[in-house]
Design brief:
Elements (H helix, E strand, L loop, with lengths): L2 E9 L2 E7 L10 H9 L10 E6 L5 E6 L5 E2 L3 H13 L7 E6 L2 E8 L3 E8 L4 H4 L12 E2 L5 E6 L3 E6 L8 H9 L9 E9 L2 E8 L3 E3 L3 H13 L6 E6 L2 E7 L4 E7 L1 E9 L1
Parallel strand pairs: 2-3, 4-6, 11-12, 13-15
Antiparallel strand pairs: 1-2, 1-18, 3-4, 4-5, 6-7, 7-8, 8-17, 9-10, 10-11, 12-13, 13-14, 15-16, 16-17
Length: 275
């Protein structure tokens, strides 16, 4: 058993246990079990995911993210802002910009002011093949029937998302419909699920059921996917402010298909755990 140094961080309520593997590389071989342990809110530290800060192969740094159930996710939008904050606070960030290797590709982070990061989240993917869905790889999935009588639009930001527009997100029984939609047969590797209420063309309200984590206060890649889905279905402009239970993100869906996300990230506390 070894002692692991960790930093508890949060980005608009989406909280993570972050380990700087450059400073502390003595991790157990079973990272899935480690994630399950540290993310347990009663017997561990508690969090929506375990994030590892590593040296990269194709970029200066690499981010790995494990869900509370032990599965590894391709990317996490709120998590990568926390990753950027830790790079800055631990003295790894030279300047205000850095490229980070993720399971969704290489992304660029820019420090904005004292507490926010703007992230180039890459291109939104709108076909079944690039999202990771069954069916014709070249087809999109827009306003199509899904389980429980809803209609959904699918978008990938390097990980799969199902976006459903409703009149009032507060009336959605997310605890019940979330896991059903997460396991929709169109998504062999499951999907994140987002219910979106349109306030006007530049303001959205979001509630989320995350794949492998359940209900969370925020989902950064989900906010990006929801902004894209709102635009392609004619509900919003390219620049939107999205209100999530944990706070606000600003999303820009550029004409070239790239998505830019801006939001805060901060350290909650630091400590050690035996693993």
């Amino acid at each position: 058993m070894s002692t692991i140094q960790f930093t508890k961080m949060q980005g608009i309520g989406n909280d993570f246990v972050v380990v700087d593997c450059i400073q502390d590389s003595q991790l157990p071989a079973d990272l899935a079990a480690l994630s399950q342990k540290v993310n347990d809110r009663r017997f561990g530290i508690g969090g929506d995911g375990l994030i590892l800060l590593e040296k990269g192969d194709e970029a200066p740094f690499r981010m790995r993210m494990f869900n509370p159930d032990g599965s590894e996710s391709e990317m996490c939008g709120n998590g990568i802002r926390c990753f950027g904050r830790l790079l800055h606070d631990h003295g790894h960030l030279d300047g205000t910009s850095v490229k980070v290797e993720t399971g969704a590709g290489i992304l660029q982070l820019d420090l904005v002011g004292d507490d926010k990061f703007r992230v180039d989240m890459g291109h939104a993917r709108l076909t079944r093949g690039t999202i990771g869905m069954t069916g014709n790889a070249d087809e999109s999935f827009t306003e199509q029937p899904v389980a429980e009588g809803f209609k959904g639009t699918a978008v990938s930001m390097g990980n799969p998302h199902l976006v459903i527009f409703v009149d009032d997100v507060s009336k959605v029984n997310l605890e019940v419909v979330g896991p059903i939609l997460e396991h929709s047969p169109e998504f062999p590797k499951k999907t994140n699920v987002h219910f979106i209420q349109v306030v006007d063309r530049s303001h959205l309200i979001q509630r989320t059921w995350e794949r492998g984590a359940g209900i969370t206060l925020a989902c950064g890649t989900g906010a990006c996917a929801s902004a894209v889905a709102a635009f392609v279905t004619g509900r919003s402009d390219r620049n939107v402010e999205i209100k999530l239970p944990g706070g606000i993100l600003n999303i820009e869906y550029q004409e070239d298909g790239k998505v830019m996300m801006t939001g805060p990230a901060e350290t909650v506390f630091e400590g050690t755990i035996e693993a």
